[in-house]
């Protein structure tokens, strides 16, 4: 007989934006934009998956589904017995757009296992365990960390462990994601990166990324603009997503702190105060917005939410 602390678990997992410009493979921000997943453990070997929303036409409905793979790996870590499952996924986070959909799927799977095991995710050490398992599956921590903890994170690998530091984000910071109607795989976006970079470019990024926590904590728009400049990855990736590079350049020319979101092709804009009307107005005048969908988002401050039923 199966023994679970809960037989039905819900998780709400945020989208994330990695890099934030200069913090390549290190910085990340959790966005108030969520996938919601329900899982019920079954005393059989069957897997029954329903997908609503993003990926409904393309994602596998068996053990190959990334959430199920992560759930299985974490179930082993958390000493759960074997089980079948019924899963319902309400997917809002678009895929292959630079909003961390695969990290969110992995964090969802690991969190579902934690919920089934009855682990208390309000405890910091349980969140740390979820982060370690999820980062190991993903292979790098920059999207996983904000999806687990919320807010702005800076993550790194220390020996075999992944580590992260959470930084305060001022309540006045708003985010806008510009979602294009085209995709770009992270794998493609990583292939074009050079193996070495000019020393001066490294220096630019070191100073900018060091400024970023102060800009986010103080909601300082001038500093935010400077702190989101990047020379290490965005210029090399621009030819793969020229429309994104053009939109980012345009937004920066209008004074808005803008970056490529993660590996792209979404564009992220950050501003201390609600600039939605202004962004609508300037983009309507300066950009062909027919291929873009602009979404105004809050910063998520809680990370993945797990509720057992
Ligand atoms: N830091 C990663 C990149 C984010 O820019 O390639 C995507 O996982």
Report a brief summary of the structure.
The chain is α+β, with helices and mostly antiparallel strands. The chain contains 10 helices and 11 strands. A hairpin with a 6-residue loop joins strand 8 and strand 9.
Count of helical regions: 10
CATH class value of the largest domain? Alpha Beta
Note the overall shape. globular
Q: Separation of termini?
A: 19 Å
User: What is the mean pLDDT?
Assistant: 96
SSE succession: EEEHEHHHEEEHHHHHEEHEE
Helical proportion, percent range: 25-40%
Small molecules in complex: L-homoserine
In total, the number of domains comes to 2
Strand content: 25-35%
Uncertain runs are: none
Rg is 19 Å
CATH hierarchy: architecture of the largest domain: 2-Layer Sandwich
How many strand segments? 11
Largest sheet: 7 strands, mixed
Which structural class do the helices and strands define? Answer: alpha+beta
CATH topology of the largest domain: Ribosomal Protein S5, domain 2
């Amino acid at each position: 007989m199966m023994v679970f602390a809960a037989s039905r678990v819900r998780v709400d997992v945020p989208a994330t934006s990695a890099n934030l410009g200069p913090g390549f493979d290190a910085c990340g921000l959790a966005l108030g934009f969520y996938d919601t997943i329900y899982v019920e453990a079954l005393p059989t070997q069957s897997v029954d998956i329903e997908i609503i929303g993003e990926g409904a036409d393309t994602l596998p409905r068996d053990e190959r589904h990334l959430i199920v793979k992560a759930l299985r790996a974490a179930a082993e870590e958390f000493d759960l017995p074997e089980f079948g499952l019924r899963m319902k996924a309400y997917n809002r986070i678009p895929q292959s757009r630079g909003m961390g959909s695969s990290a969110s799927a992995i964090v969802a799977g690991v969190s579902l296992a934690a919920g089934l095991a009855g682990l208390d995710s309000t405890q910091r050490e349980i969140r740390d365990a979820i982060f370690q398992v999820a980062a190991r599956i993903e292979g790098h921590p920059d999207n996983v960390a904000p999806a687990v903890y919320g807010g702005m994170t800076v993550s790194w690998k220390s020996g075999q462990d992944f580590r992260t530091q959470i930084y305060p984000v001022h309540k006045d910071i708003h985010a806008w994601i510009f979602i294009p109607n085209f995709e770009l795989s992270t794998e493609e976006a990583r292939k074009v990166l050079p193996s070495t970079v000019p020393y001066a470019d490294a220096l630019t990024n070191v100073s900018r990324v060091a400024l970023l926590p102060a800009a986010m904590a103080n909601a300082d728009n001038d500093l935010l603009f400077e702190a989101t400049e990047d020379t290490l990855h965005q210029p090399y990736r621009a030819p793969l997503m020229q429309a994104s590079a053009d939109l980012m350049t345009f937004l920066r020319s209008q004074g808005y702190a803008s970056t490529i979101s993660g590996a792209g092709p979404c564009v992220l804009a950050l501003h201390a105060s609600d600039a939605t009307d202004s962004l609508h107005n300037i983009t309507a005048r300066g950009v062909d917005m027919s291929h873009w969908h602009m979404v105004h988002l809050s910063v998520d401050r809680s990370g993945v939410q797990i509720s057992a039923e």
